[in-house]
Amino acid sequence: MTVAIVGAAECDLGLTGLSVLGLQTQAVTRALADAGLSLRDVDGIATTGVARFSATSLAEHLGLQPSWTDSTFAGGSAFEMFVARAAQAIEAGQCHTVVISFASNQRSARSRSLGGAYEAHTPEAQLEQPYGPLYPASHYAMAAGQYLHKYAATREDLAEVAVAAREWALLNPAAYRHGAGPLTVDDVLSAPMISTPLTAADCCLVTDGGGAVVLTSLERARDLPRPPITVLGYGESTTNSSMSTVDDLTVTGAVASGAAAFGRAGLTPADVDVAQVYDSFTITVLLTLEALGFCGPGEAPGVVRDRVLPLNTSGGGLSYCHPGQLGILLLVEAVRQLRGECGARQVPGAEVALAHGTGGILSTHATVLLGVDR
Hints:
It comes from Nocardioides hankookensis. The strands form two sheets. The chain has a nine-stranded mixed beta sheet with strand order 3-2-4-7-1-8-11-10-9, with helices on both faces. Helix 7 packs across helix 11. The chain is 36% helix and 18% strand. By secondary structure, the protein is α/β, with parallel strands linked by helices. A hairpin with a 2-residue loop joins strand 5 and strand 6.
């Protein structure tokens, strides 16, 4: 059985003043309306970031008693993981209509508290926490430093990622930085240093926001109002909790997750028309492009600089929205691109899209390939 995404939507973004459940309700009901469905059709929920038992809390809030749920907490990659789990559950007949959702009010709440405390026995507590690293900025900065040294890359190479993201955000009225004007390499380099070599402009936004997607069988999807977007392939990899256990910070689990997704889909990176790649920091994009096979080691700066691949067409976490976990919004933008709904930022003729989530400190990785219904 082929599974398809039939609805996709954002909740309010930016500085909303709303609660997490209020934003979640917006995301879910808007995505269902987009699909031509209602809450009574939903028998599966996948979400995280609501409470200790996130799916249970959201189901109760929406008045649902689903036959399938998932609330795996894996950071920004969780939502690409949820696509795989939901597709498998629908194929197995465990449920028929799944909503995957996320929302955060971290900017309104003035908090970035989305994770747990260090456990005393872990490598992080013993080998990293005593030095007071900024979590997660200092860890990504370490990866960036190794990348610059290993490949003789420059801070300008990192900055180009943020510049490219802003170019797309200027075409997206929903983007947080839509009205901020162009960003230059010099702007990125001269921004306040957060953790060497990453400045504030190398780091993602802190915003409220979120979104939702709705999945069902392709057979059923063809009777719904929106063009169905098929799930072609998926893969995931979990590699590390701490940085001190990683042999090479420039090689990530996206190598394995991407290979699995492309293998299931019977596709290669050359088949991808548009990519939505987690950009928590500028270095995340360079590492991920190389790991997914879009270019060789050390070659990602050229891919970004020459605008070889339509990448993070919403403006990404750097200029569009970053509510603490961006993965759901990567899926929303991928769906919209394949439907041809993106207006000034639309990639002409897009038929295959990739969404790749990264969680933690390059800890979890999940890749999803989506395609138009041929």
